[in-house]
Amino acid sequence: MKNFFPDKVLSLHCDSLTKPTAFVRTYGCQQNFADSEQLSGLLQAMGYGFVTSPDTADLIIFNTCAVRENAEERVFGNVGALKKLKERNPNLTIVLCGCMFQQEATAFNFKKRFPFVDIIFGTANTGRFAEFLFRHLFNGEKICEPRGEFDTEFDEDKPVKREDKLSVSIPIMSGCNNFCSYCIVPYVRGRERSRSADAVVSEAAAAIAEGAKQIMLLGQNVNSYGNGFTRLLSQIDSLEGEFFLDYMTSHPKDCTKDLIDLTAQSEKITRRLHLPVQSGSDRVLSLMNRGYNRTRYLELVRYAKEKIPDLSLTTDIIVGFPGETEADFADTLSLIEEARFDSAYTFLYSKRSGTAAAELIDDTTADEKAARFKRLLEKVSEVGLERYQSYVGQTLRVLFNKPQSGKSRQGITVEAATNRDLTGTFADVTITEAKKVSLIGALTN
Ligand code: SAH
Ligand code: SF4
Ligand code: F3S
Question: Which atom of ligand 2 is nearest to the CA of 290?
């Protein structure tokens, strides 16, 4: 919907003639953040301003994540807390959307439990937000539309309001076809669809022209980008200017040597490879339907580290998958030793109904899982600290997003001892000290 009568919305929505304001809170992954930038872009085009607290907003959006149970629980509590805002301001519009509400049962449950919510829709209906808001503001309708067909193509027409102009995220695809047995994403995001390379390259070029210093390409499995990921990356790599070129997430089963070779030659592609392994046990990997085994994963890691000596390897690990034995878990610990991850996101397995793993027998006790999780964290930080210490003495290129700190080309937080305000610039930093989650150094002349 392109013509939206912003003036009418303005006068309907609030008593005064001041701009109506919106507050957008995003849970979950970068994809959701990218969706929020589109929802905000639409609101901005309609005349909304933005506030950083829900207390004074005329419109509140919670864009939610369903990947683990604790992600859903947080939303429950936060939506409950909106009731008093609605009592204070009956003109407040409350919108719930995103992955949680693609699940019909959840959507209707929220509608019943939180009758003060105005609009609920799932990810398949993100493109209908303008229509829903219109129906609510003009006709007073309450909307609950969890279903809907996923688009078969990318809608290229949407305005975007970027949260961060320095580091710009660009979705190159959405959905997922992998059906890892534990994962809800394919159900709440639909099948994979890729944007045209032209659209992606021109969006990247425009962002760089406007001052972006980092381009982050997004997809659940960028390696299966329909029009050739390595080719797309090399097209963006050849754009003029200094910027870091990054991507999320790379699936080990589709990560090619071509991609690693391109990274090795490139001046811009970040020296970080986020390659979620999930488990070090072949038995568990196969139950997870990941499509690779330990040997293949480690081979890929060896190849990447050989070609790119300053590579920072990071990963995701799940502990307590149904039926995971002590021996399976020991395989995960030993894989961390062998792969030598700089850091890892660690998760306790969370049962998601509707997924294949939800049908498996899970006979590991919660205590046992908690104990494994603790051991996992210890191993990850032990190896991580050793890896971080290995940067001491090295000079890293850093993009400063704050006056004295930023991210290195490896994606590692670096703090520089300086009084200068380096925000928005690149500088070389010689590392003098490693901390748990960051490196400290001095500017190199
Ligand atoms: N598409 C990305 C991952 C997206 S979800 C990929 O395949 O790499 C991010 C991470 O959440 C996953 O890598 C996995 O480690 C974790 N995760 C997903 N589903 C989970 C579940 N049911 N329980 C615990 N962790 C889960
Ligand atoms: Fe989930 Fe697997 Fe798809 Fe990642 S690749 S989003 S873990 S199904
Ligand atoms: Fe969560 Fe949806 Fe992303 S479930 S991880 S926000 S795709």
Answer: 2
